[in-house]
Amino acid sequence: MNDQTIGHSPGWYDSVNEEDTDWDVHVTEVSNDLGNVADKDKVVYSLSIHGDERAGAEAGFRLIEDIAKGNASEFEGLLDDVVLLFVWTNPDGWVAREPWTDTVGFTDRNFRRGNGGSYNGSSLDTNRQYPTIGWTNPAFLPAEPDGAPTFFEDEVPDALAIVDHLRTYENVEYFCDYHGMYTADHMVYNLETNGPLDHAGIHELDALSRRTGTAMLRRWGEVEAMEDDIKEAAAIEYGSTNFVPSGEQFNGLFDWGTVYDTIDYQVTGGMMGWASAPEEFGGLGAVALSPEMIISNNYSFAIKEWKPWWTRHYAEGYRLSMRTFAELAAVDTDATIGTGGRDTAYVTTEELTRSSDDLPHTGDDADPPSETTTVTSEREVVGPTAGGGPTLSIRSEDTTRSLFVQVDSAGGEAGVRLLGPDGSVRDSIAVGDPQATTGPMPRELYVASPEAGDWTVEVDGDDVDVSISALDSESTYPDPRDAWNGEGFEQTEYEVNPMGFFEDLVPYLEDGTLEGIPQDTIGSDTLEGYDQLVVSHDVGIDDADYVDAIDSFVEGGGDLVVTDTGVHLVGALDAVEGISPDDIEDVTVQFATLSNRDLEHPLLCDVRPRQQELYKGPQIGYTDGYDQPATVVDGGAFDAAGGESAGEMGGFGRVGLGRISLDDARIDCIGSILPPAKQTEILHPFGMGDYAVSFMGHTILCNALGFEQRRFVAGGMVGTYGPDWRGVTLPAGDSNRNGEVSIRDSVLIKQHLVGMEPDAFHPSVADTNLDGEVSVRDSVLIKQFLVGMIGKGDLEISNVSATAGNGELTIDTDLENVGGTGAVRQAEFRLAESEDDLDEYAVIALETASLGPEESGTVSATIETTHLTAGTYHYSVSCDGEEKTGTVTL
pTM for this structure? Predict the structure, then answer.
């Protein structure tokens, strides 16, 4: 163990000694060989960045102590390959309950959410002060050490030190920022990073959550195992009655999604958002998550009581999380895509490109700083307006680009309303009532491009501390050099285009192609040879030749996926009847989410109920102020065109996700998922992302393209998402892949053999006896199967065995096809510490078994075992409805 002091906190005023006092910020390295830190993979645990959310710090301290004492056997082998970095992020928040600290008031005797710093008289939330790419809120102090304003050293020295120090590490694989929340429908949420992740990264993100949930399930079985302790803790902390999480994922123990999916808002300046940014933009390039634990945040006016019988549960829950991160860091992980051999084109255009060169304050010809960008703030304690209490107002001018409202409650409950210049309520939040929400309530409101006039905050209930900040700029591109008291940042260079999503997907394809075609080059024969086309913009929609080329492609049986403003194409195609251009509308929404979803729809295959958000707006420049673009279709018109809605967006029954099935093709519409980055009206000094698609959004895009996502951990394929192009669910002979073997399949084989090349014909599946070629024999076997002369392929397991050594485990299963046609089936391998745990969460590999009639063979799965604790394990292999089990010692 190596504990380092890397900086200090802003500190509190010591009212007893009458002096300012600060505290050291520590980073603790834990590994089996600290002389080799540089080459090892790293896992960073940020512990209790919010001082009043103690679960992370409690778990971290206890784990380090147990490792030092030799009482953490489950971590011992992992530390040969992995360095655990514990970051003690907010010492000010932890000591704030001491009576001598000069905090908000004597009644506030608790750990504090923020640190001892303040800006314009407002306390600082430490989890808003990091230099994230995309939208940066000027009411925060982004702790970028390179060029930070001088006064940042007084306000956010802790964050500056953490950013500077963590950048010295290489190979930071995972970053986990531990939080606490009030009550929720699950014991723990994992919050998905806002950072832009590629296919492998976003699958690591999801794998971390699934494996954490599995670990909690193995430990407790269900949340009712802690029911009495949860009820008592919630009653003491919040005065609630009989609270127990009622969620369904992992029996109420665990669920996961984006920040919006879980706790109903989005942020900029968050620590995990910075950590997951690419290294070239100052981040760590890590896969990042923020767990939230119930009953680990408290009313600010209530003295937090020590509850050892509850603390042991949340410390253990987070220890399981920490182990999961370490385990995945110790093994190889990967993700690939199966296309079924399909070739896909996507339409590119430079009109989607956004560059720092577009900005007037960049480049050799940049305008000098001219103080044309300013931030003004007002702050006041606002009481019940209905009782004649004060309000707080700020003037918005024609040059005002945004307003930001921050609310801090010293105690009690309040409803806070933001009124526009016309006196109407534009937004509202509730503070101080943890039972009124499934997670921590947002205490921030944001208005993009506010109209000129007086904006006012009113309050019902108890007093709250309110601050309003206004960003003004004479340019639609605010200059970050002028912000933060005129000491701001130079603009980081960037060039982004949302089509980078498809470019980044290409290396993960196992088959097929994915190619970009410039919009202005598409003509009558450009799309020949492609099976499907993606259009994510409306560039060229007035070009008749371009639209005709797409029309011909669809009428010829090519599948079309349209996203964002590309949805307008649906109203321009002759192939679609019932939808006119007037039925399609551009709208703006606060968050790109889906409502009224049909989770049984193929486009939402493998999407969970918690998931709603398609992409995370902040890191591509969108705010919390109703500025995310969407293109939606009138629901009635969509129905009239034979479309099936999978989800609505923007209200009023407008389709934001849906499919139109034509005779030989389909058109999938996604209203908002790959918008171009937003540069105007905001500060974004630290660069911009090409895209920030959520795991749900990623899955929907892959579903629309018919891509099967395949996930690998420790060398074994542990799961698939979307359509199965390996053919394991389709019988051999299903030549057109419609899910059944029919006489049509026999006819297609004959047509293929005489050179007719029929549409929707798949030779790999048409090979009915799996002898490596399509022949007349395959057509005959289909007929014999249909008249009952032979049975379909049927695999039986004759034996299973396992061998372990040299850090690997291999499980073999001997199979025999006792049917009359070829059989392509999935063999599922599971491994667990007990036989009872050989359930769906114990899958370690999925392998395809492919055997011809009366043929025998062996299918094997090999995984790494360096992340597993030594001992006896149970394993099972299942295939085609059969299962055999065994034991093996590692």
Answer: 0.95
